[in-house]
Write a structure and sequence with these properties.
The chain is of the alpha+beta class and 214 residues long. Helix content is 40%, strand content 22%. It has helices spanning 16-20, 27-36, 77-84, 129-141, 154-180, 184-205, and strands at 2-3, 9-14, 37-46, 62-69, 89-96, 99-105, 109-111, 115-116, 122-123. Strands 2, 3, 4, 5, 6, 7 and 8 form a 7-stranded mixed sheet that branches. Strands 1-9 form a two-stranded parallel ribbon. β5 and β6 (99-105) form a beta hairpin. α5 packs antiparallel against α6 (184-205).
């Protein structure tokens, strides 16, 4: 369920051409954009004023966009380019038939898993526009993770997310190497590397490295 205050509702359709007209993009980008995107709506605009927050140094407007796709398999680079060259903070809700995916750009693009539309839950949680933005990032970046420390900054949480992704990737790579390796000595060495990586991952996901990120 998506629950934002009525005061932030916009529901304004953007012509696709107008959306990329002022962006520095290639002809290939435009072709992919036209062939993969059906429609774009600015559905909600979150500002300190519309949410009745006090003004702060974080005065940027957060725009929640609903992008209706023609196919589920699309070029995610489209979102990266749009977010990088837009002055607003952008949060994307991608829609294809009855499924939705959430995406947000904060240093890099983060995407949730595809979900049934009725399983998507979003709200303006927080007591400032900064907290609302951080909450939206966390909804996407940490959807499949538990035990992320709460008392560290969003940037340090994302660094932790990056470490976890790197370790999972390395573990998968070594597991494949172990399966293929025929020499007992080499296989034993790979098992040692695998145990070390899994222990590091265990430490991080159970918060034992929390102090390193504060």
């Amino acid at each position: 369920m998506i629950k934002f205050p009525a005061s932030v509702r916009v529901h304004k359709r953007l012509p696709k051409e107008a959306f990329y007209r002022h962006l520095t993009v290639s002809s290939a980008f435009k072709e992919n954009f036209i062939s993969e995107v059906d429609s774009i709506y600015v559905e909600w605009s979150l500002t300190p004023k519309s949410l009745n927050f006090e003004k702060s140094s974080f005065s940027e407007e957060i725009l929640i966009l609903i992008i209706q796709l023609k196919k589920q398999d699309f070029h995610k680079q489209l979102l990266e380019i749009i977010a990088k060259q837009n002055p607003h903070k952008l949060f994307f809700i991608l829609s294809f038939k009855n499924d939705m995916q959430l995406a947000v750009y904060h240093g890099k693009l983060y995407q949730s898993k595809w979900m049934r539309a009725e399983d998507v839950y979003l709200s303006a949680e927080g007591f400032s526009i900064e907290e609302v933005w951080e909450h939206l990032i966390e909804k996407v970046a940490f959807q499949d993770l538990a035990n992320i420390p709460e008392n560290i900054s969003i940037d340090n949480k994302l660094i932790l997310r990056g470490k976890i992704d790197r370790l999972n990737s390395e573990i998968l790579k070594i597991e494949k190497a172990v399966w293929k390796e025929q020499q007992p000595k080499k296989k034993f060495e790979l098992y040692g590397q695998l145990r070390a990586l899994k222990q590091e991952l265990e430490d991080i996901t159970h918060g034992q490295n929390e102090n390193e990120n504060t």
